[in-house]
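Box 3.1 A note on notation
Throughout this textbook, protein chains are presented in two layers. The first layer is the amino acid sequence; the second is a token string describing backbone geometry. Keep the layers aligned when reading.
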Amino acid sequence: MNDILDRTLRDLDPAVTPADLDTSTDPKARSLLARVVATDPMGVPAPTISSRRVLTARRLAMVSGGVAAGIAAALLLPGVFGGGTAMAAWTATPHTVSGDRAAEAQEKCLDNARDDARRTTGREFGFRPVVTEGRGPWTLVYVNDGGSHLAEITCLLRDGDLVGSHGSTPGPGAQPLPPAPAGSARASLGAGTSSSEESVRTVTGRVGAGVVGLELATEAKGSVTATVTGGYFAAWWPDAPMTEERENASRRGGVTGVTTILQDGSRRSVSLEELTGRTSTQVNTPATSGSVKLD
């Protein structure tokens, strides 16, 4: 690992790294790095680390076994999200972003998605924006391939500047995802970006016929209203900094419940098992890779 990454990782954890430990050659340190950038065999994305000096977390996970794998977290340099007062401007209810501001944000996210997909997979995907929403000075843009729904990227911009992104690409033999059932929703949990000061958790996915709204019950911010449009939804919220220990402790991605709002005004509770397509055991069992501090 380079000097920038070494310093960043030490800042992110209170543990003391021995002065004589060379993290670039130490077998345990190299093993930790390999596990951090790997994809969990259960399909739950594992945290990744960005060593770039730039304030973006642009990574796509390569996929094995034909299953779409995403980035659960990227560790960013301090101050990426604005911190403190700036993050206090976040709102649990989104506002509409339109006109030139929306077009500019969408184009930046599309450029980012195409660039990373081309670099990491050597393939071209027909990305298109499906959700664009605002919360305070931030704009979220969610793009996907519009076909299999397996290639998708979510970008977060602050005052027009891209500050973070995460996503997934399909591996060989991956099959298109089935439609979301009427009145329900489909999504994966655990996506996010983090600095040493704070993190941003994101949930994006699809809604079934008759769904006009969706609310997420979150551990950090209580009820968060998602933007629902064209059969898709997206929402994000700030949280405490992510650590490997914290993420290993739960597979819920900071979500405790989901409610869809139907055309007739009725509300329907959607279990996390129904939302993710996982069993109760998978949803509630902590990761089995162990808990390792990032020294």
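Residues 55 and 80 are 6 Å apart (CA to CA). The helical segments are 3-11, 27-36, 84-87, 99-121, 244-248, 272-276, 280-284.
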